[in-house]
């Protein structure tokens, strides 16, 4: 006897199967979305790449030149990755109006006055400044003038930054050419400032020796070259991070004028320095015994970072002196006496050192007796 089939149960099984199938399809859609590589999605946003590596001057000069041979070092808009130690920025709204002296503009457009690796800015592979008015920075690597071009406008106050590691170096000097590369109808007073800072945040310091009140002629005149050579202040020496920037601002006559700012070109940048020298740096001090009495005939030893050792003895009044010690290095001073023990000290030699004094390590029993 055949069992009677229940049509309602059969229909229920079909509906359950359809529901499970739909649920599986939905799950596959979500999985597919989760593994889809969005990095390949086309974007209209301009990508930026930078290379804010600090160039070590101990390895040689920093040289930055736009020539026919280096035309491919910047090949893509806003991409500085092929240029070590150099970056450019747009200077978005750094000034509230036109005609601001760039010497007074000491911050950046970023939080904390930092310089992030994005967004940097450069318009690559341009040839004729007289026929190009985008504002900001542009690389002119063909045509009459080869340079990094600066053009201010109502938003742009462009600047170029050089990242330097000056450890072990002194007399850091930046040399560069500023050229009027715009021989078209553009005509503006085009000031250029030079600034620096130690570290990667905070305000820049203006360097008056690098200032150019007007780097351009015009209209329809180009080619004037102004050469600058500026020694950075001494606090920029022997530092792991120093930033130097060349800056221009939106020109005075750009508001209400039918012509944009003129293009100013910067090229042939060389940052050089001097190595440490054996200067007439001296170290002096006194060695004491207990009760502040001078300790005579104690041996003072100077050990430098290369393992070199020098000796001297204290005189009747406990004084000692080392002369002709190499600047920019460090050393350890230690004292040997027949009657007392002394803790050695480490000092960094940036200038003459005086009053490097020593007092003995007093044993506990002697310290206790000194209270009476």
Q: What's a concise summary of this model?
A:
The chain is mainly beta.
Q: What portion of residues belong to β-strands?
A: 25-35%
> Structural class of the helix and strand makeup?
mainly beta
Helix content: under 10%
The oligomeric state is single chain
Q: Profile the largest sheet.
A: 7 strands, mixed
Which regions are unreliable across 5 or more consecutive residues at pLDDT < 50?
Answer: 1-11, 28-48, 367-372
Q: Work out the radius of gyration.
A: 34 Å
Q: In the CATH hierarchy, what is the class of the largest domain?
A: Mainly Beta
CATH topology of the largest domain: Jelly Rolls
Please give the count of helices.
2
> How would you describe the shape?
elongated
Rounded mean pLDDT score: 85
Number of domains: 2
CATH-level-2 architecture of the largest domain: Sandwich
CATH homology group of the largest domain: Galactose-binding domain-like
Count of individual beta strands: 19
Q: Give the termini distance in whole angstroms.
A: 121 Å
Q: What is the string of helix and strand elements?
A: HEEEEEEEEEEEEEEEEEEEH
